[in-house]
């Protein structure tokens, strides 16, 4: 039932976007996406990620000098209706005057495909998305998750060269988002379609992307696999934007990072480093004898598989610790912490 | 301590006094003046008018004469046709210019919007003068046609004049509704249609027009109803009995044919009310505010 | 920003429509100041038509202004409380009332006028006084006042505001004066502009309600158009424009209270939060 789709690699070459009032939404960026790859563009709102996606789609024209390539074709001047891209919008943008089947068949209808064939192909898409019972439903009779699947089916029905999703899961509640994310991920991999997914949700980016492009203030700040982005953030922005980071002020002395409440052995730090960062899971509760830092528990949160501790008295801000130990912690208890020195970052 | 006890004692605890019931009485008090004025000066007179329509020699059949009497029926048909044509024309103009004014941003846009909506609430009599200025014996269209073809075009005093006047009258209010609806159109729907391969005319047909449809139905119905009852323009242009309101007026003032005037008024009122009610069942609320 | 051919076509069309609306206004203003319109502006410009209108029809103008002012007072007095009740209690009955009071606007004014004349025409003193015209105008303008106040009251969270005030000890009337009325302000303003403008320009309903001694401006205009020279009618129209256009411009500025609703919501909240 599911055929591999014939999809294109996408390349943005020197693409920037300046708006009429002079604001630069996207600085010159170069992006290469291989055929069949799933890439997530991640960044805070206003970082230019949606504009970048819209340049790929053909909804925005890059400033002169920029080029958008689908495989060998330069599509820079091609409007979106000629590009054959599937697009899923944050609000789903389903046509309220058409029912589910008509929505999915719309792209085939404007291509002049006859009623019988387009219904058959739309029904095939509905089968793939488990939407058969809803064919004649009106759009306002669908739940959020169903709308999302209709939007995806509609975009895929035209057998696009690439699938572009703009914050496509943001409007759904957390649990549904998880389910759909898995569903979409499996589907896209089976279809082998080039997919670009824009989101501000780093958790979503981690789970969906083969590669993540992190953007900030119109520029690309890091490109890498989810693991690289998480474990080896290339700059302070990425470190703070992706996941939780503890910040600790201090100074380097004799291969150790000295803070007011202890010292962390760290050979790889720059001598004039004044601040280090580390993730909550890089900290363990240790014996007083071999600990690096000592603090006082300010709050504890039981998370089921682990316990999150908020520890005061170490730096300016409380340090967040995630401990898998089964032990119980109480507020005001003194804890001794050990930081995995390989996981200490400094920028 | 004693003062607190005193306060507690004074708190309303009597189970019989439901505060909501008391509030209902006060609210009823507030709305009563409006109810009294409306009942005394509209409901009662209209009820009497309906009765008067059947009070003539022909009795209840006076109402039927609207359809059977050739003069009345043809006036009714002309009024319907005129109003229908005015509605379609105005809607077309409002969609083209309204979409343009909402979608495009250019120097002088807000001035154009102001110009297009300025004649809102000009009374019909003044619109009549506007038509005379355009198509009267000394009108600008006549001057231009003399210069171009040597023939003087005068249209102010026939059905064309009424048509022009009613379109003039309707443009501001319809364009306001269309612009408000166009501002609320979801741009993402159009982008979605384009991403699926729809060309601009297809986007217009499949996304924009369906999106505007409720506004078009409601403002079209108001435009139609207003045209049916419009009186000032016809009065100024001295349009005889060509449209129903003029016919009612002459039956009442010149022929003192009170029963017929009443019956015709009731029929006219029913038609406009029915059109508005019908439109509302199609397009949802917001249809009732004519004016 | 470069524009395609569609832009220029639409612009041209829109300019044409604007010309259709504006040219006759300009022509009538010109005619009002022209010595002899048949010979054109070359016959000389004059204000003598304006002066003559003032002498002949000055009474109409004052009567119209008086009726508009009275109409405004009446619609505020009976319309604002009614709108408040409709906002508070949304039942079948209240919706029916809302629908009913719109009928004088929805059905042709001539029918309403005829009905009034038939029922009250024999009350000599009432029939021949200006209050007879006022009654018609109140019927016609009341729904506009009610609707604009209702629109504002529905856009704010009236219930929470009132519950907040009540929790601080405000009784029914205190809430009405200190919470409801101030927050309905923009709706009352928009409604007032609408009521005044409509009352000054009303003709359909007015014609049958007037007597030769209670002529309002639009009725006077109609008489001038049919009986007097074009220049005189135009000069009268110029005076009418001078009164109505400022009102229309004011309506474009303050006439849409729902646009500022978020700002008002915040203000409304602040009012309750601060003592």
Automatic annotation (TrEMBL), chain A:
SMART domains: AAA
Topology of the protein relative to the lipid bilayer: Peripheral membrane protein
Location(s), subcellular: Cell inner membrane
Keywords: ATP-binding, Cell membrane, Membrane, Nucleotide-binding, Translocase, Transport
Residue ranges of the TM segments: none
One protein family per Pfam: TOBE_2
Primary location class: membrane
Protein name, as recorded: ABC transporter ATP-binding protein
From TrEMBL, chain B:
Any Gene Ontology CC annotation: plasma membrane
Keyword annotations: Cell membrane, Membrane, Transmembrane, Transmembrane helix, Transport
Record keyword Metal-binding present: no
Transmembrane domains' residue ranges: 25-44, 80-102, 111-134, 146-169, 215-237, 257-279
InterPro entries, A to Z: MetI-like, MetI-like_sf
Membrane topology label: Multi-pass membrane protein
Every ABC transmembrane type-1 domain range: 76-279
GO annotation, biological process: transmembrane transport
Subcellular location field: Cell membrane
Primary site of residence: membrane
Alphabetized Gene3D superfamilies for the sequence: MetI-like
Similarity annotation: Belongs to the binding-protein-dependent transport system permease family.
Protein name (Swiss-Prot/TrEMBL): ABC transporter permease subunit
Organism listed in the record: Siculibacillus lacustris
Organism lineage string: Bacteria, Pseudomonadati, Pseudomonadota, Alphaproteobacteria, Hyphomicrobiales
Automatic annotation (TrEMBL), chain C:
Membrane topology term: Multi-pass membrane protein
Domain ABC transmembrane type-1: residue ranges: 61-251
CDD domains (alphabetical): TM_PBP2
GO CC annotations, alphabetized: plasma membrane
PROSITE patterns found in the cross-reference section: ABC_TM1
Signal sequence interval, chain numbering: none
A Pfam family assignment: BPD_transp_1
GO biological process per UniProt: transmembrane transport
Keywords, comma-separated and alphabetical: Cell inner membrane, Cell membrane, Membrane, Transmembrane, Transmembrane helix, Transport
Protein name in UniProt: ABC transporter permease subunit
UniProt superkingdom: Bacteria
Presence of the UniProt keyword Cell membrane in the record: yes
Subcellular location: Cell inner membrane; Cell membrane
Keyword Transmembrane helix: yes
Protein family (similarity comment): Belongs to the binding-protein-dependent transport system permease family.
Transmembrane intervals: 7-33, 61-87, 99-120, 132-156, 176-200, 235-255
């Amino acid at each position: 039932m599911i055929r591999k789709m014939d999809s294109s690699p996408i390349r943005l070459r020197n693409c920037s976007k300046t708006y009429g009032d002079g604001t630069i939404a996207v600085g010159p960026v170069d992006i290469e996406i291989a055929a069949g790859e799933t890439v997530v563009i991640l960044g805070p709102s206003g970082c230019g990620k949606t504009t970048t996606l819209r340049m790929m789609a053909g909804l925005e024209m890059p400033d002169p000098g920029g080029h958008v390539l689908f495989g060998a074709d330069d599509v820079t001047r091609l409007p979106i209706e000629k590009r054959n891209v599937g697009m899923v919008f944050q609000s789903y943008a389903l046509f309220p005057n058409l029912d589910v089947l008509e929505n999915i068949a719309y792209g085939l209808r404007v291509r002049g495909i006859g009623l019988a064939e387009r219904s058959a192909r739309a029904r095939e898409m509905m089968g793939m998305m488990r939407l058969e019972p809803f064919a004649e439903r009106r759009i306002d009779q669908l739940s959020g998750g169903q709308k999302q699947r209709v939007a995806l089916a509609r975009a895929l029905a035209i057998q696009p060269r690439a699938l572009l999703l703009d914050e496509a899961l943001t409007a759904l509640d957390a649990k549904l988002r998880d389910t759909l994310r898995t569903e979409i991920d499996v589907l896209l991999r089976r279809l082998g379609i080039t997919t670009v997914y824009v989101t501000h949700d780093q958790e979503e980016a981690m789970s969906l992307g083969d590669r993540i492009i992190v953007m900030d203030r119109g520029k690309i700040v890091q490109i890498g696999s989810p693991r690289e982005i998480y474990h080896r953030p290339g700059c302070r922005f990425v470190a703070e934007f992706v996941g939780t980071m503890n910040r600790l002020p201090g100074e380097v002395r004799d291969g150790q990072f000295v803070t007011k409440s202890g010292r962390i052995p760290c050979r790889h730090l720059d001598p004039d480093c004044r601040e280090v960062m580390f993730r909550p899971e890089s900290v363990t509760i240790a014996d007083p004898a071999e600990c690096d830092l000592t603090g006082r528990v300010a709050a504890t949160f039981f998370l089921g598989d682990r316990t999150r501790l908020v520890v005061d008295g170490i730096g300016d801000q409380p340090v967040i610790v995630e401990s898998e130990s089964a032990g119980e912690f109480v507020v005001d208890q003194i804890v001794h912490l050990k930081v995995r020195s390989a996981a200490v970052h400094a920028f | 301590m004693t003062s607190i006890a005193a306060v507690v004692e004074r708190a309303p605890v009597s189970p019989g006094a439901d505060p909501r019931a008391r509030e209902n009485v006060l609210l009823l008090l507030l709305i009563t003046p409006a109810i009294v004025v409306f009942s005394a000066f509209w409901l009662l007179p209209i009820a009497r008018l309906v009765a008067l329509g059947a009070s003539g020699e022909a009795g209840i059949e006076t109402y039927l004469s609207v359809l059977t009497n050739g003069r009345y029926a043809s006036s009714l048909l002309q009024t319907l046709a005129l109003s229908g044509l005015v509605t379609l024309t105005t809607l077309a103009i409002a969609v083209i210019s309204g979409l343009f004014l909402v979608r495009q941003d250019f120097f002088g846009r807000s001035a154009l919007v102001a110009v297009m909506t300025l004649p809102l609430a000009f009374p019909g009599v003044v619109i009549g003068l506007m038509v005379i200025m355009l198509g009267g014996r000394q009108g600008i269209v006549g001057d231009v046609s003399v210069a171009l073809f040597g023939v003087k075009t005068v249209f102010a005093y026939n059905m064309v004049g009424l048509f022009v006047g009613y379109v003039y009258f309707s443009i501001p209010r319809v364009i306001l509704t269309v612009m408000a609806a166009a501002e609320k159109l979801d741009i993402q729907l159009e982008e979605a249609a384009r991403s699926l391969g729809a060309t601009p005319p297809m986007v217009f047909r499949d996304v924009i027009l369906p999106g505007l449809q409720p506004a078009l139905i409601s403002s079209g119905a108001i435009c139609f109803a207003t045209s049916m009852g419009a009186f000032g323009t016809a009065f100024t242009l001295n349009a005889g009995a060509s449209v129903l309101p003029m016919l009612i007026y002459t039956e009442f003032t010149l022929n003192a044919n009170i029963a017929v005037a009443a019956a015709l008024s009731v029929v006219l009122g029913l038609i406009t009310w029915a059109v508005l009610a019908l439109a509302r069942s199609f397009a949802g609320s917001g249809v009732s505010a004519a004016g | 920003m470069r524009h395609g051919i569609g832009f220029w076509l639409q612009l041209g069309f829109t300019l044409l429509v604007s010309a259709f609306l504006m040219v006759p206004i300009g022509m009538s203003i010109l005619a009002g100041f022209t010595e002899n319109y048949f010979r054109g502006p070359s016959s000389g410009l004059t204000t003598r038509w304006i002066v003559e209108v003032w002498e002949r029809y000055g009474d109409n103008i004052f009567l119209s202004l008086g009726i508009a002012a009275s109409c405004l007072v009446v619609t505020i007095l009976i319309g604002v409380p009614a709108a408040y009740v409709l906002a508070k209690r949304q039942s079948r009955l209240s919706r029916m009332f809302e629908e009913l009071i719109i009928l004088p606007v929805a059905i042709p004014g001539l029918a309403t006028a005829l009905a009034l004349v038939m029922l009250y025409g024999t009350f000599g003193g009432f029939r021949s006084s200006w209050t007879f015209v006022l009654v018609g105008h109140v019927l016609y303008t009341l729904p506009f006042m009610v609707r604009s106040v209702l629109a504002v009251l529905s856009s704010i969270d009236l219930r929470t505001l009132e519950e907040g005030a009540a929790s601080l000890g405000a009784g029914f009337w205190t809430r009405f004066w200190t919470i409801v009325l101030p927050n309905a302000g923009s709706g009352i303003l928009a409604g007032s502009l609408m009521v005044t403008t409509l009352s000054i320009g009303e003709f359909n309903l007015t014609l049958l309600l007037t007597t030769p001694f209670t002529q309002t401006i639009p009725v006077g205009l109609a008489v001038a158009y049919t009986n007097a020279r074009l220049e005189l009618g135009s000069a009268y129209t110029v005076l009418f424009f001078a009164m109505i256009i400022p009102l229309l411009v004011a309506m474009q500025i303050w006439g849409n209270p729902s646009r500022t609703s978020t700002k008002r919501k915040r203000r409304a909240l602040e009012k309750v939060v601060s003592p």
